[in-house]
Amino acid sequence: MCVCASRGVRAAVTLDDVVPVIGVLALQGDVREHLSALASCGARAVPVRRPSELAAVDAVVLPGGESTTMSRLLGTFDLLDPLRERIAAGMPTYGSCAGMILLAREVLDGRPDQQQLGGLDVVVRRNAFGRQVDSFETDLDVDGIPDGPVRAVFIRAPWVEKAGDDVQVLATVPDRTVGGAGTGEAAGRPVAVRQGAVLATAFHPELTGDLRIHAMFVSMLA
Ligand code: GLN
Question: How many CB atoms lie within 10 A of CB 127?
Fold first, then answer.
C-alpha cells in the first residue's frame, strides 16, 4: 500500500477505499456463479466463510442452495449473529432462492429448527411450486430492470406469501407459466422483492448470464 503524506494529510487512496467489496456467503450453494456474475458487473467479490471476512466486506450475497443446510452451517461457522447484526444495520444484501428464504421474517414449510437472518418483512413458502414444477424457467418483467424481461430460472423455489408495507414487490409469477406454475395458486405470487438495502429473488440470475439483477444490486451500493 502506498501512503503519501502531504502537510500531514494522508493523500493516497487505495482501491479498498473506493471500490466496495461484495462478499458471497460461501458455506454451500452456487457461490462460484455469484462471484463470477458480480465480477462481470465490475464489482469486487470475495467469498465469505468467517466473521473476520464478513467484517471486511461492504455488502453480501446469499446464494441459492439449501436454506436448512445453510442455516445450520451459519451457526457452525459463527456467522448467524454477525450477519443478523450487519443486515439490521443496513448492509446491502441480496439473497437468491435459499438466500431469499434466509432473509425472510418467517418461513412456511421450513424445518422447525431453521434459523432466519431477517431483513425482509416477508413470509415465504419454501418449495412453494410443488413437485411437478420443482424447476422451471419463465420470462419475468422486473421493476427497475430496463430492456425487457429477465429469463428467470426457478429451482425448488420459494414464493412470497405475505409482504409488509415497506416491501416493494419487483416481480410476480406471470399468469401463463409453462408447466402450470403460473396457474392456480402460483399466479401473481411475488418472486422478487426489495426492502431498503435488501434485495431478494426466488430465482437464480447467476445461472443465465444475464447480469441485470446483479448490476441492480451493485448499483444499490452506490
Ligand atoms: N428449496 C431450497 C431451500 O429450501 C431452495 C432451493 C434453491 O436455492 N435453489 O432452501
Answer: 16
97 catalytic residue (yes or no): yes
pTM of the model: 0.90
Is 204 an annotated catalytic residue?
A: yes
pLDDT in tens, 44-87: 999 999 999 999 999 999 999 999 999 999 999 999 999 999 99
Q: Which domains does the chain have, with CATH numbers?
A: 2-219 (3.40.50.880)
CA distance 199 to 165: 15
CB atoms closer than 10 angstroms to residue 181: 27
Length of the chain: 222
CA-closest candidate to residue 218, choices 53, 6, 22, 52: 22
Q: Which residues line ligand 1 (CB under 6 A)?
A: 64-67, 97-98, 101, 126-127, 155-156
